Amino acid sequence: MKRATARPELLLRLSGRRGVSRRRELERELRALIQTGGLRAGDRLPSTRNLAGDLGVSRGLVVEAYDQLLAEGYVTARRGSATRVAGRRPAAPVSRVVEPRATSLRYDFRPGVPDASMFPRRAWLASLRRTLAMAPDAALGYPAPRGAEAVHAALAAYLNRARGAVASAECVVMCAGFTQGLRLVCHVLRERGVTRMAIEDPSHAEQRSLISVAGLRPVPVAVDADGLEVDRLARADVGAVLITPAHQFPTGAVLAPSRRAALLDWALRRGAFIVEDDYDAEYRYDREPVAAVQGLAPDRVIYAGSASKTLAPALRLGWLVLPPELVADVAAAKRRDDLGSPTLAQLAYADFVERGELDRHLRRMRLFYRRRRDALVAALDFRLPALRIHGVAAGLHLMVELDEDADERAVIAAAAGRSVGVYGVAIHRARPAGHPPALVLGYAAMPETAIAEGIDRLAKAIEATRPAGA
């Protein structure tokens, strides 16, 4: 390594190894300094004579390196003037990509995670094989922005039958999970002049962030035992609202019938759109699943669903059922985003649905997850009987209110110290103040015996964090 001591001072590394071009090394070092901001627009480079002396190389080598950077646009040079960094923004430093670590917690109550071991591999493989055997050559080309026609028809029929939707195949747009679907919707709404979107409070923290990044302002509206407090929407001055009416996240509340009617009335009067996140509504244990709001007003409701909870998140299969006036704009946004979702997976899903495999899988999984829900409720009743439980009727998680004087973060940390993963509700609240501490506990991916042991350890963690004398 050689250090250039002439002003401006630069730290440059030239290996000096035989067979290695010093000119190319110098170009690479200077280029990297400019790309990462070590040299900024307008900064003066050392003269070729001074830099050559500092590095112990020929002046001609430095001249050639400067000429190369000049040709690439990294520097500018005028006769009689110093060589300077060109007026261009440096690229952001390239950081090492760190893959998320697999959880080391023995008992992880992470919400929203289905049991991957229950994925219907044989049935899915059969659908994939049929798809590959029967798909025309054209299906292997670039996908249509809205997705494959076969999956549009299969999804529309299924949603109309099982979710009480009023969906037509022409209004379905396939996407890479709910996250992409919400992002596309936000972009299209922004282009149509919407600047503010109401969100439930509490609601998923990552969705609030996504809405902001997409250019809309999320406006929190309170949730109670009957779901979104719709009467507050009129005062919110928003052009759209994102809701989870069948099983509110994270409280588990179901939007009451009177509020559904009030919500639709608000949307019609204001000309606003309702974005319905129907993320785990198929799992209803105490009665039939609550029908989708979309079926009451298909011209005002943007329905969003995915296979992440019913099959597996890794499939990245999601869909939007849109009001007709939005279909073309959302399809265009989808094409700009990624040119379309993988066709073969869509065709396999269409086959899987049409052959009744999804219905069979859901019937089996409702019984399976209900046993785990019952095991969690029983364990909480036995070890933590004083705590209030919410949202037990549906979904893959429930919410547990802690004592008012409990420290939510301390409980989470103490549980982790006992190899138990529990997750706080405060992060999902736009306005955490004034609300009791609470935990959201997922149960789908944990065996019944592990659930009981995990709650036993959680009870000990809660006891350890209680104030002295409490």
- Provide the CATH top-level class of the largest domain: Alpha Beta
CATH domain fold name of the largest domain: Aspartate Aminotransferase, domain 2
- Structural class, from secondary structure content? alpha/beta
Count of discrete alpha- or pi-helical segments spanning 4 or more residues: 13
What share of the residues lie within helices? 25-40%
For the residues shown, what is the average pLDDT?
90
Strand-residue fraction?
5-15%
Strand order of the largest sheet: 6-13-12-11-10-7-8-9
In CATH, the homologous superfamily of the largest domain goes by the name Type I PLP-dependent aspartate aminotransferase-like (Major domain)
What is the total number of structural domains? 3
The appropriate CATH architecture of the largest domain is: 3-Layer(aba) Sandwich
Topology diagram in text:
Elements lengths: L1 E3 L5 E3 L9 H14 L12 H8 L3 H14 L2 E2 L7 E2 L21 E2 L12 H14 L14 H14 L9 E4 L1 H15 L4 E6 L3 H9 L3 E8 L2 E2 L11 E4 L13 H14 L2 E5 L23 E6 L11 E4 L2 H15 L4 H12 L2 H27 L4 E3 L6 E5 L6 H10 L2 E2 L1 E2 L13 E5 L5 H18 L5
Parallel strand pairs: 5-16, 7-8, 7-10, 10-11, 11-12
Antiparallel strand pairs: 1-2, 3-4, 6-13, 8-9, 12-13, 14-15, 15-18, 17-18
Polypeptide structure, described:
By secondary structure, the chain is α/β, with parallel strands linked by helices. It folds into 3 domains: 2-85, Winged helix-like DNA-binding domain superfamily/Winged helix DNA-binding domain (Arc Repressor Mutant, subunit A, Orthogonal Bundle), CATH 1.10.10; 119-358, 3-Layer(aba) Sandwich (Aspartate Aminotransferase, domain 2); 360-465, Aspartate Aminotransferase, domain 1. It has 13 helices and 18 strands. It has helices at residues 22-35, 48-55, 59-72, 121-134, 149-162, 177-191, 205-213, 257-270, 324-338, 343-354, 357-383, 408-417, 448-465, and strands spanning 2-4, 10-12, 75-76, 84-85, 107-108, 172-175, 196-201, 217-224, 227-228, 240-243, 273-277, 301-306, 318-321, 388-390, 397-401, 420-421, 423-424, 438-442. An 8-stranded mixed beta sheet has the order 6-13-12-11-10-7-8-9, with helices on both faces. Strands 14-15-18-17 form a 4-stranded antiparallel beta sheet, with helices on one face. Helix 1 (22-35) crosses helix 3, helix 5 packs across helix 10 and helix 6 packs across helix 9. The longest helix has 27 residues, at 357-383. Residues 1-6 and 89-102 have low confidence and may be disordered.
